Amino acid sequence: MEINLEKLAFDIDFHPSDNLVAAGLITGDLHLYRYSPDSAPVRMLEVHAHTESCRAARFINGGRALLTGSPDCSILATDVETGSTIARLDNAHEAAVNRLINLTESTVASGDDEGCIKVWDTRERSCCNSFNAHEDYISDMTFASDAMKLLSTSGDGTLSVCNLRRNKVQAQSEFSEDELLSVVLMKNGRKVVCGSQTGIILLYSWGCFKDCSDRFVDLSSNSIDTMLKLDEDRIITGSENGIINLVGILPNRVIQPIAEHSEYPVECLAFSHDRKFLGSIAHDQMLKLWDLDNILQGSGNTQRNEAGAIDSDDDDEMDLDDDPSKSKGEI
């Protein structure tokens, strides 16, 4: 299934319980589509959300609103049903807003081009935490909900851990050799996996963030721009060569390429709410929805579990790791 967005897209997000997908475009527009396996996608909304590009888009409030961020430094909340503006923060950051992530039912985090991360209370429409976590742009973020830790990667080549309870940057890795572009939690929270500009995957053990515990160098020489956790042992990666790969973690191996979006860099990957579809965008202006079961055929059973929680009895101390250690499915 393909949707011609007609302009370059920077981000996509699926509705948490309905067959809706949103895309943020270089024009500053926000598009919302309804999709079905049996019919062509239908555009439900087109909103000119920002004066500059729409770099980040996330459903919030149970899917009733869409949050977007932009280089114009604003964050906008849009009503999904009507397309009307719920709220706009015109100076949410001092630099371009690059990333958005949901944390809890009422909090989200935003990251900007100068390495600042802010946590927002969506009910109060106010900033409740702020971290100067990096020296360069925030490339990706993920949330360890049980430990209330926000992990971020950056163009400065570091991984940071922000403690939301104590409102401080609790840990930061040594500078790696190149930019870190993506991050996921694996192995029930015991491993943090980062994708880099040179195609190397760096693995960090929880609680030991200064230096990586393992490096997977055999994946590709192409940058790993985006990653999704499929289950505790496998991730799906999108690279600058347009290939979408299924990759095993510990043992580290390329299981198989599962799709080829195009010859252009894959910008973002996302799962639909029921994990029946994998969404991908690249620099070809197309949003593609892949039947996940079809493209994973021959790679083992598809597991549709949520991100693993981290066991933490102490909100300050981190758990130490004791673990040793081109198929076409588009429909």
From TrEMBL:
What keywords sit in the KW lines?
Developmental protein, Nucleus, Repeat, WD repeat
Question: Out of the domains of life, which is the source?
Answer: Eukaryota
User: Start-end of the WD repeats?
Assistant: 131-172, 259-294
Q: Compositional bias (Acidic residues) spans?
A: 311-322
Coiled-coil regions listed in the entry? none
Mitochondrion listed as a keyword: no
Q: What is its main location?
A: nucleus
Q: Where in the cell is it found?
A: Nucleus
Cite the Gene3D superfamilies for this sequence: YVTN repeat-like/Quinoprotein amine dehydrogenase
UniProt cross-references to SUPFAM superfamilies, sorted A to Z: WD40 repeat-like
Q: Where is this region: Disordered?
A: 301-331
Sorted alphabetically, the Gene Ontology cellular component annotations on this record are: nucleus
UniProt lists the family membership as follows: Belongs to the WD repeat WDR55 family.
Protein's name according to its UniProt entry: WD repeat-containing protein 55
